[in-house]
Amino acid sequence: MKNLALSFSKFVSEGSHYEIGKSIGEALSKHKALYKINVMDEASDSRAVAQKRLLLDEFCPGIFDEISGIADGLNLPVERLAVLSDFSVTGGCSQFVAMPKITSGGSVLVGRSYEFSIDDELCLCVTRASGKPAHIGFSLFLSGRFDGMNEHGLVATMSSCEYNQRSSGEGLWFPLVLRSLLDNCKNTDEAKDLLKSYP
After folding, report:
1. Which end of the chain is more exposed for a tag (fewer CB within 10 A), N or C?
2. CA angle at 179 for the pair 146 and 45, rounded to the nearest 5°
3. CA distance 69 to 22
4. How many domains does the chain have?
């Protein structure tokens, strides 16, 4: 088997959601590999983006502001960002949790594999949004999260074999939901209640 050289990126951002997005957009303009993943050649339908914005503003406040900041940092229309596009991807990943009674240090250990695709962003984000718990996690289209842990100790991760994001519909897309959980919840009870309120 051929060895692959993987290159990870790291963004440390703080401020308002918009300021975080703008700083990420400015950094993204100099990062060819991440730019290619996150910026589309053609714009998404503006009506579909407007529908997504309504959902995000209602259920995941601040995230569309961050996405707008990324677009402004790149000097592009928001419709060119892949996080708001329609696509279908297949792949796989695994996760595990080891509870305190079986770990040597008495801690909870959480792990994820990243065999979803070797073309993933491989971008670790440390985010300190104003008025939100700080969190760390790997991004999906920069504003979303594959996984993460916030300053209260809440951990959110996903396993997936396939995911779709359609231009219309009433549901929220999972990486933006994970991000919202990290931004808004202190524990699993709060996360479960918030998830139940989402379309």
Report:
1. N
2. 90
3. 4
4. 1
Domain carrying residue 116:
9-197
- Considering the entire predicted model, what is its pTM? 0.83
CB 83 within 8 A of CB 67: yes
CB 146 within 8 A of CB 156: no
> Is 90 inside any structural domain?
yes
Residue 3 is assigned to a structural domain of this protein: no
Place 179 in a pLDDT band, splitting at 50, 70 and 90.
Answer: very high
Instruction: Please give the sequence-ordered ranges of beta strands (E in DSSP) within 66-134, or none if there are none.
Output: 87-90, 95-98, 109-112, 123-129
Strands (DSSP E) found in 53-187: 87-90, 95-98, 109-112, 123-129, 135-140, 144-145, 147-150, 155-157, 162-165
Query: H or E stretch including 55?
Result: helix 46-59
Query: Is residue 154 in some structural domain?
Result: yes
Report d(CA 56, CA 65) in Å as an integer: 10
